[in-house]
Amino acid sequence: MQHLMRVEKPLEMSIEGHNIRFLDFQRWKKSDNYGFKDRLAELSGEVYYGVNFTYFNKTQNRSVTRGNNPSLVNQQPAGNHALVDYEYDTPFLNYDEARHGTYPIPFAEVNSNPNIK
Question: What is this structure's pTM?
């Protein structure tokens, strides 16, 4: 079941947008105590390296190297590379489950019902 939740479903739903993942994290937090903050902690601890890659171009019938570090790897390469280790650090530090864990009540509902807190 863990494999289905964490691997298969994200692959199948990846084209539907980022909100699907947010809702998954909310359900997981309630079911097995694995929340969005936990995932951000995992990602902030990982380091990726941008590397050039070489591919075979059939039309030119030769190998071509694509520059500007367009591919990411998680093992430090021996050749030229760029360090990509900042993407999840700040979100992990700033995320607060109490403030960001649920969607806010829409203003129209708050304005029409003074008893909502």
Answer: 0.52
